Automatic annotation (TrEMBL), chain A:
Stated family: Belongs to the bacterial solute-binding protein 9 family.
A Pfam cross-reference name: ZnuA
An MF annotation (GO) of this entry: metal ion binding
Protein's name in the database: Zinc ABC transporter substrate-binding protein
TrEMBL record, chains B, D:
Organism the protein comes from: Dictyoglomus thermophilum
InterPro entries: ABC_BtuC-like, ABC_TroCD
Pfam families from the UniProt entry: ABC-3
Alphabetical list of Gene3D superfamilies matching this protein: ABC transporter involved in vitamin B12 uptake, BtuC
Membrane topology: Multi-pass membrane protein
Annotated protein name in UniProt: Metal ABC transporter permease
Gene Ontology biological process terms from the UniProt entry: response to zinc ion; transmembrane transport
Residue stretches spanning the membrane: 12-32, 52-79, 91-111, 131-150, 193-211, 218-238, 244-261
TrEMBL record, chains C, E:
Protein name per UniProt: Metal ABC transporter ATP-binding protein
Pfam families, sorted: ABC_tran (PF00005)
Organism superkingdom: Bacteria
Family: Belongs to the ABC transporter superfamily.
Length: 281, 267, 247, 267, 247
C-alpha cells in the first residue's frame, strides 16, 4: 500500500516546487502585531496603506497558532511593525520566517527597561509615531509630506490628551495603586501614580507567599480599595487577596481590540478616576 | 510561627494535608498501573472541556469535568478495540483536547480569558468551599480504596485471573479511572497543574524503591508529601520564592537524594 | 453424576486459522481429565474458553450447568492456573498476600477469618512455600513463583480446578507432592482439568484423557494401547514414548 | 491550488515532510519502548534549561539543549539506581524542570520574558534555515536508525539477552535517547508543543494495531503523518482556522475512525 | 582439554541471604553439564553470573579463559536461553526475525548471507518452527514461543550453550528432537550447561552433573547411586524418584 502513496506524495511535492511563487501585491500593506500599534500607524499613514493587525485572540504558549489568514496578511505586507520585547515575540518569529522588512519599535526607543508596554504612555506613543513615520517615508518618499502632516496632527492630539490626563488626575491627592501585571508601568510613571506593588512582575512568575502577605498588609494599611488587572487575566491569587481584604478587582484594557488609541487611553483614565475617587473619599 | 498567622496559609496547610492523601493514593496506583503520565495528560485534556463550556457559555468547571470523565471512560474502550497500552489514549487526548480547545476558541473573536489559568491554581489561593469539597472527596476516595483494596491489587497484579475469578474488572477500573480523573482535575484546579502532577508522582516514586509493602508505602508517601508541602511553605516564605515551585523542588531533592541511599534489594 | 463442564460443537479462530474445530467434551464431578497435544494445538485456548476469558467463535460451553459467559457467583468455584500469566511484577506483593487473594475471592472480600488462615497455611505447606510466605513475589525463583500461583488457585477450594501446565519449573519433589494433592482433591469429589506434556505421569494419574490437535482426537480412558494410537495420530509419527514407572 | 502559491505554505509542506519522517520513527520507537509521554515530558522540561540560560545571560537555545540532554542522560542512571519504570524520571522532570524554571526566574527582579514562547513554533512560520537544519537532522536520524535497526529491535525485545550477546545496550540507548531528545526539542520549536506531540504519538498509534510488520508500519506512519499535515493545511486555509490544531484534529479523526475498523487479530 | 568455564570460590547474595556459597565448578570443551537442585537453589542465578548479566558478590568466573565481565567479542559465542525472559510482547516480531537476531549477533550485524539463512532454516526445522516462521511471536502458544527462543540461541552456533529449563512447555516429540540435537552439538565439541528438573532424562544424557542447593553438593558423573545419595541430601528426604526408560 505504501509505494503508490509515496509516489503520490513525491509528485505533489514536485508540483509545489514547480509552481512559481506568484508575486503578491505587496504595495502599501502594513502588518502590525497588536491593535494599539495599528491605531497609531493608522494616524500616520491615513488611507494610503492597508493595515492588518496580527494578534490572534489567544496567545497561550500551549495554543498559539497563527491561521493561514494571518500568514497571508503577513506575506502581503511590505513592512511588519512589531512592538518588540515580550508582548509580540510570536509576531517577530512569524515575520522573520516570512523574511519581511520588520520594524521593531523597541530597538529604536531609548528605554533600558525590560517592560514592553510602551504604547500606553502617550509621550512614548509620540516616539512610536515618529519611528513609524520615518519608516514609511523612507519606503514611500513621494508621500513624505502627507505623512509628516499626519505626524504633526497626531502629536498635537497627544499633547491635548496629555493635558487632559493631567487635568483629570490632578484633583486627587492620593494616587496609589496596586496592579496585577505591569502593563501600565510607563503610564503610571508618567503621571506620578504611585504603584505600591505589582503582584506579578513578569510573565510566568507565580507570586510568592511573602509577596501575597505583603500585598495584603499594604491593602489594609493604605486603605487600597481596588486592584487593577487585565481583562484576559484570570488568576486565583487575586481571589485569595480579595478574600483576605475585601478589595475589588477592576479590569484595565491595555490592548483594545478595534479601539482607537485615544479612546483606549481615555477609557482607562476614566477607570482610574473612579478608583481614585473611591480611595480619596 | 508568623507565617501561619494568615488565614490563607492555614487553608494552604489544610489543603496540603488533604491533597497529600489524595495524591499519594492516586500516585501509587498510577505508578503501579504504569500510567505515570495520567496526571499531566488529563490536566491538559481538561482544556478541551473548558473551551466548550466557555464558547457555549455554560458552567466551565462542570463542562470540563463531564468532558474529562467521558474521555476517561473511553480509555478502556479504546484499549480493548486497539490493544494499545493504556497510556496511549491518554497521550492522544493530551494533544487532541488542546487542539480541539484551540480550534473552538479560534471561532471566538476578541479576548478570550486564558483558560489554562483555570488550572493555574495556587496552594495559597484555596477557598473555604474548596476545602470542604476536597475534604468530602478525600473521604470518598479513602473509603473507596480501603473498601476495594484487595480487588484493586488483584486486578493490577493479574487482570486475567481476576476476571476469571468473577471480579467485574471493567466496572471497577472505570470507577478507579473516574475517581482518578476527578482527583486530577480537582487538585490541579486547587494547586495548579505543575504542583499537582508533582505531588502525585514524585513522593510515590521516591518511596516505592524502598518500601516493599504497599500499605506502609501509602503512609510513607503521605508523610513525604506533607513534609514537602510543609517545608516548601516555610522556605518559600523565608526566602521569598514561589511556593508551588519550592514545594516541587523540595520533593525533587528528596527524590534525587534517595537515589544515593542503598535500596533493600540490589542486583 | 453431575456434568461440571460440558462443551458442544466448539469452534474458535484467532485470525484466519481455525484453532479449535468441533470440540465436544465433558467433565464429570470428581473427574480428573488431562488434555494433551503438541504445541500450538489449542489446549490453552480451550482452557481459556472454559474459564470464560475468551469468548468462542461458536458452540456451547456450559460450566456448572450454565453458559460460562453468564456465570457470576459460581466463578469463585473455578480455580485457574494460567500457562503464561501476564503479571505486574513491579507490584511488591508478598507470597501470603497472593495466596490470600484466592481466599478473598471465596469469602467475598471480607476480612480473613481464622478458618481462611488455616486453609492458606495448609496450601502453602502443601506447595512448600510456607517458609517464604513473607518474600516478595517478584524476587522469587521461577519455580517458587509457579508454586505460589498454584497455591492461590488451591486456596479457593475450587470445585473445578483448571491447570495449564502447572508443574512447569517445579522441582521433582514438589511435583510429586502436587500430584498426591490432586489425588486427594479428586477424592473430595473436585473436578480437575490438567494440561501437561508429561504423558508418563498423566497416563498414571488421570481418569480420562483428551488428545487435542485442533480437533479432539481421543476422549476416553488412558489405556496404554489407546494412548499409543492417539499419540501416533497426534504427533504424526511414532516416537520414543517415555513413560514413568515407580522404582 | 492557490494555497500552495505562498512560500510559507511551501515551506510548511517541506517541513511537514521532514517532520513526518522524524516523528514517525521516534513515535514508533517511543510507543514500543513504552515511553509515550517522552515528548510531552521533554518539551516541558526544556523550560528549566531556558531559564538557566536566561538568568546567566548565555545562549538560551544552547543552554536548553544541553540541559535537556543532561536530563535525558540521567534517565538510564535513575532507572538503574531505583529500578523504576523509565517513564517515571521523565514524569519527574516534567514537573521539576518547570518548577526549577519558575524558581530561578523569581530571583530575577523586575520584568521577565515568557520563556515558554521558546516553544511557540508554528508549521506556518518555518524558516529556510530551519529547513536545512531539519533536513540534516532527518538524514542523521534515518542513518542512525537504519544502521542500528536490528540492534534496537533486539534491545527493545529482550534487553537482558541482548546484553548477554555482547551488545552495548547502555551506550546505544543513550544515543537513541539523545536523538529522541533533540528531535523533540527541534520539532517542538518548529511546530509547537501540541503539534509535535501529536505527530509523534497519534499516527503511530493508529498504525500499530493494523500493521504487524515494523518496517511497513514506518512507511504507513509516515504516510498517515503526511496525509494529516497535508489535509490539515488545506482545511485550515479554507476555513481560516489554526493550522496546527487542524492537523491534530485530522490525525485524531483518523485514529478514532480506525477503532471501528476490524483489526487483523481479534480475540 | 580446554576449560570453557571455570568458577572458583563463588559467593552471591541478593538481600541478606547468601544464595550461592563457595561454588567451584568447571566445564570443559565438548562437555555437557547438567545442574539440578530444588526451586530457589540458585541455579538461574548461577547461570546469569556465568553469562555475565549478574555481577557476583565474590569469586572468580572465567569464560573462555577470561574474566566474564571483561568479555567483549567472545560474548557472541555464548548462546543463552533464559528461564523467564522479560520480553516486550507488543513488538510485532516474526519468528524468523527473532531467530535471525541470533545470526546477526555472530555476523556482526551485517546483511544476512545465504549461509546465514541456511543455518536459520536448519535450526528452525530442528525446533519445528519453520512452518510458523512468518507468525508474530506474541501470538504463538507457550511452547512455540519457547522453541523460538531456543532456535535463536542455536542460530548463534555458540561454543557455549547455556540453557535454563529450556524444554519447559515443549511437547514430548520436540523435547526428544531437542535432546538429540544437544547430543550432536556435543559431538561438534560444543559445551553445554543445562538446568532442568527432568532428572530422568538428564541422568541419561549428560557427562557431568552438578547438584546445587546454595552450596555445590555434587559435581561428577551421573552414576545412579551417586545421584540417589545426592538427591537425598538435596531434597531432604527420600522421595519417589521417577526415572525414564526407553520402551
Ligand atoms: N531479584 C531478586 N531479588 C531478591 N531475591 C532473589 C531475586 N532473584 C532470585 N532471588 C532469590 O534467590 C534464590 C535463588 O533464585 P534462582 O532463581 O537462582 O533459583 P533457581 O535455582 O533457578 O530456582 P528454580 O528452580 O525455581 O528456577 C531464590 O530464593 C530467590 O528467592
Ligand atoms: N493471541 C493470539 N493471536 C493469534 N493467534 C494465537 C493467539 N494465541 C494463540 N494463537 C495461536 O493459536 C494456536 C493455539 O494456541 P494455544 O496457546 O492454545 O496452544 P497450546 O495447545 O496451549 O500450545 P502449548 O503446548 O505450546 O502451550 C497456536 O497456533 C497459536 O499460534
Ligand atoms: Mg498452552
Ligand atoms: Mg531458575
Ligand atoms: Zn503544559
Amino acid at each position: 500500500m505504501n509505494k503508490p502513496k509515496i509516489k503520490l506524495i513525491l509528485t505533489l511535492l514536485l508540483i509545489i516546487f514547480i509552481i512559481p511563487s506568484t508575486s503578491l501585491s505587496q504595495e502599501r500593506n502594513i502588518a502590525v502585531s497588536i491593535p494599539p500599534i495599528g491605531s497609531i500607524t493608522k494616524y500616520i499613514v491615513g488611507d494610503l496603506w492597508k493595515i492588518s493587525v496580527l494578534l490572534p485572540s489567544n496567545t497561550n504558549p500551549h495554543l498559539f497558532e497563527p491561521t493561514p489568514q494571518i500568514m497571508k496578511e503577513l506575506e502581503k505586507a511590505k513592512i511588519v511593525v512589531i512592538n518588540g520585547k515580550d508582548v509580540d515575540l510570536w509576531a517577530k518569529k512569524l515575520a522573520d520566517s516570512a523574511q519581511k522588512d520588520t520594524l521593531v519599535l523597541s530597538d529604536y526607543l531609548k528605554i533600558k527597561e525590560e517592560n514592553p508596554h510602551f504604547w500606553l504612555d502617550p509621550i512614548l506613543a509620540k516616539d512610536i509615531a515618529n519611528i513609524i513615520y520615518k519608516k514609511v517615508s523612507s519606503i514611500d518618499p513621494s508621500n513624505k509630506n502627507y505623512y509628516l502632516k499626519n505626524l504633526n496632527k497626531f502629536n498635537k492630539q497627544i499633547d491635548e490628551l496629555n493635558k487632559y490626563i493631567i487635568k483629570e488626575l490632578s484633583i486627587f491627592k492620593n494616587k496609589e495603586i496596586i496592579a496585577y501585571h505591569p502593563s501600565f508601568y510607563y503610564f503610571f510613571k508618567r503621571y506620578n501614580i504611585k504603584v505600591l506593588s505589582y503582584i506579578e512582575e513578569g510573565e510566568g512568575k507565580e507570586p510568592s507567599l511573602k509577596k501575597i502577605s505583603e500585598i495584603i498588609r499594604l491593602i489594609k494599611s493604605k486603605n487600597i480599595k481596588y486592584i487593577i488587572k487585565e481583562p484576559f487575566i484570570n488568576t486565583p491569587t487575586l481571589g485569595t487577596i480579595q478574600k483576605e481584604t475585601k478589595v475589588k478587582i477592576v479590569d484595565m484594557d491595555p490592548i483594545g481590540y478595534n479601539k482607537d488609541y485615544f479612546e483606549l487611553i481615555k477609557e482607562n483614565v476614566k477607570i482610574l478616576k473612579e478608583i481614585f475617587y473611591e480611595q480619596n473619599r | 510561627m508568623e507565617i501561619f498567622a494568615y488565614s490563607f496559609t492555614q487553608r494552604a496547610l489544610i489543603a496540603g494535608f488533604l491533597i497529600s492523601i489524595i495524591s499519594s493514593i492516586i500516585g501509587l496506583y498510577l505508578i503501579y498501573r504504569r500510567m505515570t503520565f495520567m496526571s499531566a495528560g488529563i490536566s491538559h485534556a481538561v482544556f478541551g472541556g473548558l473551551s466548550i463550556g466557555y464558547l457555549l457559555g455554560i458552567n466551565m468547571t462542570l463542562t470540563a469535568i463531564v468532558f474529562t470523565i467521558l474521555l476517561i471512560w473511553s480509555i478502556p474502550y479504546i484499549v480493548k478495540r486497539s490493544k494499545l497500552q493504556q497510556e496511549i489514549p491518554v497521550g492522544i487526548f493530551y494533544s487532541s483536547s488542546m487542539a480541539l480547545g484551540a480550534l473552538l476558541l479560534s471561532f471566538h473573536k476578541g479576548y478570550t480569558t486564558d483558560l489554562f489559568s483555570f488550572l493555574f491554581g495556587s496552594i495559597l489561593s484555596v477557598k473555604e468551599e474548596d476545602l470542604i469539597l476536597t475534604l468530602l472527596f478525600t473521604i470518598g476516595i479513602l473509603v473507596f480504596f480501603i473498601k476495594n483494596y484487595w480487588k484493586i491489587i488483584f486486578i493490577i497484579f493479574d487482570k486475567e485471573t481476576a476476571e476469571a475469578s468473577g471480579l467485574n474488572v471493567y466496572k471497577l477500573e472505570r470507577w478507579i479511572l473516574t475517581l482518578t480523573g476527578i482527583a486530577i482535575v480537582l487538585t490541579s484546579k486547587l494547586v495548579g497543574i505543575i504542583l499537582s502532577s508533582a505531588l502525585i508522582i514524585i513522593p510515590a516514586a521516591t518511596v516505592i524503591p524502598f518500601i516493599k509493602d504497599i500499605k506502609k508505602s501509602v503512609f510513607a508517601t503521605i508523610s513525604l508529601n506533607l513534609i514537602s508541602i510543609f517545608s516548601g511553605l516555610i522556605f518559600s516564605y523565608y526566602f521569598n520564592i514561589p511556593t508551588g515551585a519550592t514545594i516541587v523542588m523540595v520533593a525533587t531533592i528528596f527524590f534525587l537524594s534517595s537515589l544515593f541511599i542503598k535500596k533493600p534489594t540490589n542486583h | 453424576m453431575n456434568k461440571i463442564v460440558e462443551i458442544k460443537n466448539l469452534y474458535h479462530r484467532y485470525d484466519q486459522d481455525l484453532i479449535l474445530e468441533n470440540v465436544n467434551m465433558e467433565v464429570l464431578e470428581g473427574e480428573f481429565l488431562a488434555i494433551i497435544g503438541p504445541n500450538g494445538a489449542g489446549k490453552s485456548t480451550l482452557l481459556k474458553i472454559i474459564v470464560g476469558i475468551i469468548k468462542p467463535l461458536k458452540g456451547i460451553v456450559k460450566v456448572f450447568n450454565k453458559d460460562v459467559q453468564s456465570l457470576k457467583e459460581e466463578r469463585k468455584w473455578i480455580g485457574y492456573v494460567p500457562q503464561k500469566p501476564d503479571l505486574e511484577k513491579y507490584l511488591p506483593l508478598k507470597v501470603k498476600d497472593i495466596v490470600a487473594l484466592g481466599r478473598r475471592v471465596v469469602n467475598n472480600w471480607q476480612k480473613l477469618t481464622y478458618y481462611d488462615f488455616e486453609i492458606m497455611d495448609k496450601v502453602m505447606e502443601d506447595m512448600e512455600i510456607k517458609s517464604i510466605e513473607d518474600k516478595i513475589y517478584g524476587e522469587l525463583s521461577g519455580g517458587q513463583q509457579q508454586r505460589v500461583l498454584i497455591a492461590r488457585a488451591l486456596a479457593q477450594e475450587p470445585k473445578l480446578l483448571i491447570l495449564d501446565e502447572p508443574t512447569v519449573g517445579i522441582d521433582v519433589k514438589t511435583q510429586n507432592k502436587f500430584y498426591t494433592l490432586l489425588r486427594d482433591l479428586k477424592k473430595q469429589n473436585k473436578s480437575i482439568i490438567l494440561v501437561s506434556h508429561d504423558i508418563g505421569i498423566i497416563s498414571k494419574e488421570v481418569d480420562r484423557l483428551a488428545c487435542i490437535n485442533r480437533k479432539l482426537y481421543l476422549h476416553g480412558c488412558p489405556e496404554e494401547i489407546q494412548i499409543h494410537g492417539a499419540l501416533k495420530e497426534l504427533y504424526g509419527e511414532n516416537f520414543l514414548l517415555l513413560t514413568h514407572k515407580e522404582e
